[in-house]
Design brief:
Length: 145
């Protein structure tokens, strides 16, 4: 079963600020509830081919995985895929200006679990959706200060 979860939020902050903050992996542990750390494995700043190692806790399990940037359009879109980890996942951020000083951010996670993970895929999709909602609400809280 393929997982495809899309979440979005409107943030009262300029697109440049929202996209700049959200696309910097070094900020991930501040707004992602489950991410404990992120470390560049390649040179900064983020670009196509950049790799970032993440440590997270999800569904009670400690996870370590590496994301690789496969698409980067500053202020528009960031696409990362797991280079390794528990199952293949793609995360996409997109940003839209929705008014003077306002931004809509979309967060999409897609993947196709294999092995044992495929049996819990429906529950994982629900858990990802719930976590993404919390993450985007935290991001909004941080950026609207």
């Amino acid at each position: 079963m393929k997982i495809d979860v899309v979440s979005d939020i409107s943030i009262n902050a300029p697109l440049e600020y929202v996209a700049g903050y959200a696309s910097n992996p070094e900020n991930a542990s501040e707004w992602y509830v489950n991410i404990k750390s992120a470390e560049f494995l390649t040179t900064k700043p983020i670009d196509i081919g950049s790799q970032v190692a993440f440590r997270a806790k999800f569904l009670g399990r400690q996870l370590e995985y590496v994301y690789e940037v496969v698409e980067w359009q500053p202020l528009e879109k960031l696409v990362m895929i797991t280079a390794n980890g528990p199952f293949p996942m793609q995360t996409t951020y997109t940003w839209e200006k929705i008014g003077s000083g306002k931004t809509k951010m979309f967060l999409r996670n897609t993947g196709e679990p294999s092995g044992f993970s495929k049996f819990v895929a429906p529950f994982m999709a629900f858990a990802i959706k719930r976590a993404n909602k919390k993450d985007l609400e935290q991001l909004k809280k941080i950026l609207e200060k």
